[in-house]
Design brief:
single chain; Arc Repressor Mutant, subunit A; elongated
């Protein structure tokens, strides 16, 4: 007999639940919206959105795990290497029926990694 996965354990095994949790998080959404048009460094994101730098790093890390954000390292005017982040998505459509979540994305055409 096949063992059923309890709804509370679904998140552990289903990436759509993890993506959904990132999208319903207010700070994560603000970060995604702020980096749609052009890539930004984490310091710019933190300052613009007035969130602590540590929180911005945590959110960006979670968004990268879900492949919602791309990362690119580049040289800046001072000669140092800086990491820039950009949203891979332009918008999202979420449909929830019973225990099923369907998420569809529109790719961000401004993203260099696409």
């Amino acid at each position: 007999m096949a063992k059923k996965i309890r709804p509370l354990l679904v998140e552990k095994y289903d990436i759509s639940h993890k993506v959904f949790n990132e999208l319903v998080d207010l700070e994560s959404r603000y970060i995604l919206f702020s980096i749609i048009k052009k890539p930004k460094r984490i310091q710019e994101i933190s300052k613009e959105l007035q969130i602590p730098l540590s929180s911005a790093y945590k959110k960006i890390h979670s968004l990268k795990e879900c492949s919602l954000v791309s990362e690119e390292a580049d040289f800046i005017k001072t000669g140092h290497i800086a990491t820039f982040y950009q949203s891979r998505i332009k918008d999202v459509k979420i449909i929830i029926t019973k225990f099923e979540i369907r998420i569809s994305f529109t790719k961000n055409k401004n993203s260099k990694n696409e």
